[in-house]
Amino acid sequence: MVGRLRLWSGYVLFIYVTTHLLNHALGLVSLRVLEAGRYWFLIVWQSFPGQVVLYGALLLHLSLAFWALFRRRTLRLSPWEWTQLGLGALIIPFGTLHVVGTRIAYDYFGVHSGYPWVLGSLIAGTWLGVFRQFGLVFVVWIHACIGLHFAWRLRPWYRTWLPFLYAVALLVPAAGLGGAAIALRDFAELAQEPGFLRQTFEQVHAPDAAGVAALNAISDRLMAVATLLSLACLAARPLRDLWERRAGVVVLFYGDRKTVSAPAGLTVLEMSRIGGIPHASVCGGRGRCSTCRVRVGGPDRAQLPPPSAEEQKVLARVGAPENVRLACQLRPPQGRYRITPLLPAASGPRDAYRQQSQAHGGERYVAILFADIRGFTSISEGRLPYDIVFLLNRYFRATGEAVQAAGGRLDKFIGDGVMAIFGLNVEPQIACRQALDAAHRMALALGDLNEAMSDDLDQQLRIGIGLHAGPAIVGEMGFERTSSLTAIGDTVNTASRLEALTKEFAVELVVSQDLLDQAGMDLPAAARHEVEIRGRQGRLAVRAVPRAADLTTLSS
Prior knowledge:
The protein has 556 residues and is of the alpha+beta class. Helix content is 54%, strand content 16%.
């Protein structure tokens, strides 16, 4: 809830800043248009509802920023987080004078705080005032854009709209600053006329020297209060840690002899950062991305609190089992726990929306397809490397499209071979039927490819396909960015052996009777064999199909 309040209050402030800059941009036309545009700006933001929303969002956002500083367990931040934090801190010294010189000057001194007053004050003041006013735009805008990037980059639509959003992020402040700069230049030219500034200040009811000094004093006091609050938040953190140690100590074992001890009440992600252990967290620990998820074990796992509704929603999205939790949301009570991060520390936004529930590892009934080009060595002899790569890519595309069209998952390419999995999200009968359909589609696609490349091939491409179904261990395996969802086990090995038997039987497809029985199909016209599979006890009944393209006519 705190995170949502910060986000929505930030949205309100961002809309205010955007409309304010668009008003500034009217200075590109003229001073008169600039001041006329301010009329519509004030209708929205100086109305009673507008003021309640604006100042409520400002106070809420500022208060929650101090609260977040107090609650932060470690100052080990990423460069982007340091940048946003530093820019947020700079908003106070850059922005207090602007707020005091406009809103407070209007409320307490009756100043008409329009553009004539602001521009006249800049011209009558020093270059430091100009720097603070124009620098405020950069500080606020970049701070807001970083926050929006972290809030939106997990949304599926964000990558599509990113070019447009990037253009807006550049054009809005550029137009606003350009309009303000031109307006300041034009006003400075008018100020060269004798008595212009004096007359302008009289019209806007500018305060006298004592009033200006009072406004500067108010600005200084606000900065002093903000500085004291920041220091108080930092100073209170050690006291908070001492208080929380009354609840006991949590010990986390990460493997490789890495152990972290900390007071109860911290999240697992916070403890990882305190211990200097790299940990993925795309959303910055806000419970949105799931990249910080960990497998929790150890003697005290049973006493963990259940996940909240929001955490459960994210865990369900990635199909996490019971022993997997979000490190940024889990606050383990006193005890000893074994923690295993499930994603590499360098995981990005794409890893946040992996939908396969099998990624964490488990046994599932699947159908496996192996395919290989026959005699590819002789086909590739005398060809240029470019031609070989081109040919393989055409073949991989044809077979890959056939597998996907049948409903399977293309697992990997091995040399000139292909492995595909069926049944990750469907019932065994459907998975086996999909595997047979994929073999049929691959044979047809190969025929089309041979016809399309008849002028470039001395001999037609031929393939051997092996199909088998059974239980296999399915999970995400590999290291860092090379990890992917795959299957291992006897079923996979058997399918590979059946593909090799296509050479011995001189056929295009060898399919196990187990797969056919599960699919509820039979191939009475295909030769039946009892074969021995290395590493497997007993004999396996298979069917040898001369042409996989004839599957529909051979089935009963």
